[in-house]
């Protein structure tokens, strides 16, 4: 979001309560899931409960909590029991875990990152927070180029992209299920970016809606990502 939020909570529950009071979190489902996924297990605990993005290495950040809440609110109606979601640039695994919990016992959330060390970090974090998501197969973490999606698990009812794309990511649109929704930041690095909602209608038509101004790291290739670290 365009306004600077720098709230600092003492723990995860204080942070989530703040996001609800601020009307960033509106639904009980998002509130319950963000309450149950402790952000302190996915980033440095000294800074986990500040409403600001945090670096997690390899030129990557974990988004500010209000951005995660906003994304989950936008995708909530698609994250139902038995659906499938793709988290592109899954990083520390936080949002992947949230999406999986929202989809219930029969859903699958795929987190994709092209940095193997981040994939390993995400697995470790989820093991320490919600190990059942991995043991039950509700979360699958893969190494790959998220710009190309992960077609073997698609089509997806919800896709979230955690980095800014310079152009419309057609492979991800292709992997959206009819009725699915894609949330992606669009725009060049270090310049104006817009969070965009892309919906695929039941008859396959694409509808695009700009939402808010944002700032994200670029959606790029693995070699450039390593150079940013």
Automatic annotation (TrEMBL):
It catalyses: [protein]-L-isoaspartate + S-adenosyl-L-methionine = [protein]-L-isoaspartate alpha-methyl ester + S-adenosyl-L-homocysteine. It is an enzyme of class 2 (transferase). Keywords: Cytoplasm, Methyltransferase, S-adenosyl-L-methionine, Transferase. GO terms for molecular function: protein-L-isoaspartate (D-aspartate) O-methyltransferase activity. Pfam families: PCMT (PF01135). Its EC number is 2.1.1.77. This is Protein-L-isoaspartate O-methyltransferase. The lineage of its organism: Eukaryota, Metazoa, Ecdysozoa, Arthropoda, Hexapoda.
């Amino acid at each position: 979001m365009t306004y600077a939020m720098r709230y600092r909570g003492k723990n995860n529950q204080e942070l989530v309560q703040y996001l609800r009071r601020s009307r960033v979190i509106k639904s009980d489902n998002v509130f319950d899931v963000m309450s149950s996924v402790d952000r302190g297990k996915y980033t440095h605990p000294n800074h986990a409960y500040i409403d600001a993005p945090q670096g997690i290495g390899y030129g990557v950040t974990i988004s500010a909590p209000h951005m995660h809440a906003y994304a989950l609110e936008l995708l909530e109606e698609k994250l139902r029991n038995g659906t499938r979601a793709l988290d592109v640039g899954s990083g520390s695994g936080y949002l992947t875990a949230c999406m999986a919990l929202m989809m219930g016992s029969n859903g699958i959330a795929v987190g994709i990152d092209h940095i193997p060390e981040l994939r390993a970090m995400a697995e470790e974090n989820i093991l320490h927070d919600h190990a059942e998501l991995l043991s039950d197969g509700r979360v699958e973490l893969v190494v790959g180029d998220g710009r190309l999606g992960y077609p073997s698990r698609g089509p997806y009812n919800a896709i979230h992209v955690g980095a800014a794309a310079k152009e419309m990511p057609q492979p991800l649109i292709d992997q959206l299920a009819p009725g699915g929704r894609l949330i992606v930041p669009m725009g060049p690095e270090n310049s104006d970016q817009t969070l965009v909602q892309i919906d695929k209608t039941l008859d396959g038509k694409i509808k695009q809606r700009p939402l808010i101004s944002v700032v994200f790291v670029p959606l790029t290739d693995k070699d450039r990502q390593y150079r940013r670290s």
